[in-house]
Design brief:
Aldehyde Dehydrogenase, Chain A, domain 2; 2 domains; 16% strand; globular; alpha/beta; 5-stranded parallel β-sheet; 6-stranded mixed β-sheet
């Protein structure tokens, strides 16, 4: 298949996603939630909207335009997908297909229904991809590996695949930086950035940096737009557990009714908890962020002078060239 045929097929997949997004009665939503109760229909729909956004033909063409493609290359690429949010590994599959390689795909058991559904649709749209997508139970006999998981699983991946070209992703999170001039709209966007997917994605905000004189209780008023997640049984159990634990340990926290706001130097927070810490000025803040950059996926802020900051409410909708961990996945694959 030539590149133009691949782009055309993926654009047609985007058109199918349009139908799926607007067909809320489609049984796939219920099947996904039955397999994984964390994948509620509203969040599955949001994930599909994100993929639809970068499946526009013009966006795909803009994405691939800077690269040189060698159609004769075909390596077997092991893909070990995470399952923390719906279709979190779809972009890696997209990169492998566009690059002309073959995906040896090991989906997460937490995200099999939705992943299988989209793969079946891709193959229906373009049968030429049938030889380029292989679902496997174990990643073996491959030429390169892209694996996503926790810090613990990353150590295993390194040990097992260190002799192969690899991209191995560890735990990351995203942070927000406030300066006290945020509007109600900004804080509503921040609320979505925090609580979408119950806060489980690497692009979710788990840590907020605030100025020294900022009253953190002000956040309790601004983060009310996602309160529906407090009714979700699994999420609420996490929140109640963290509240009991914090009380037992005599930790200071502000209770938002379905989340805790705790002052902490830690970046990554448990489900149901948001960490915050204070900064003195931009110079101090940039030093803090620079030291911990390898653990930060994205920075959300309106603060002038903060490099590569993303506006509030948009962090969960990356473009295809917004690569995980700031490592160009497509370039990696094309250079094999």
């Amino acid at each position: 298949m030539v590149l133009e045929e691949k782009i055309a097929a993926l654009a047609k997949l985007g058109e199918y996603l349009d139908q799926l997004i607007h067909d809320e009665g489609n049984g796939i939503y219920q099947m996904v939630e039955k397999q994984n109760p964390w994948f509620i229909p509203a969040f599955v729909k949001t994930a599909l909207i994100g993929i639809r956004k970068y499946s526009e033909r013009k966006t795909l063409e803009k994405w691939v335009e800077p690269y040189h493609f060698n159609q004769d290359k075909n390596k077997r690429i092991g893909l070990i997908l995470a399952g923390n949010i719906p279709l979190v590994g779809f972009h890696d599959l997209l990169c492998v297909l566009v690059s002309g390689h073959t995906a040896c795909l090991k989906p997460s058991h937490q995200d099999q229904v939705l992943t299988d559904h989209l793969i079946d649709k891709i193959l229906e749209i373009e049968p030429g991809f049938r030889s380029r997508i292989n679902k496997v139970s174990a990643v073996e006999h491959v030429d390169a590996v892209i694996a996503t998981g926790s810090d613990n699983s990353a150590r295993y991946f390194y040990a097992y695949f260190h002799k192969l070209p690899h991209l191995i992703r560890k735990n990351r999170t995203s942070v927000a930086v406030l300066d006290g001039n945020e509007s109600a709209t900004d804080l509503a966007g921040l609320s979505r950035d925090i609580f979408l997917y119950f806060g489980m994605g690497c692009r979710n905000i788990s840590k907020i940096f605030i100025p020294r004189n900022y009253d953190p209780s002000f956040l309790l008023k601004g983060l009310k737009t996602s309160g529906f997640i407090g009714d979700h049984l699994k999420y609420r159990n996490n929140y109640l557990y963290q509240r009991s634990l914090s009380s037992m340990l005599d930790l200071n926290y502000l209770d938002g009714g379905y989340y805790l706001l705790q002052e902490s130097e830690k970046l990554i927070s448990p489900v149901g908890v948001i960490h915050y810490s204070r900064y003195r000025d931009l110079m101090e803040l940039q030093e803090i962020l620079g030291i911990r950059r390898d653990k930060i996926q994205a920075i959300v802020s309106n603060l002038p002078g903060l490099d590569q900051a993303i506006p509030f409410g948009r962090v969960q909708f990356p473009e295809p060239w917004d690569y995980a961990d700031q490592v160009d996945t497509l370039k990696f694959l094309l250079q094999l």
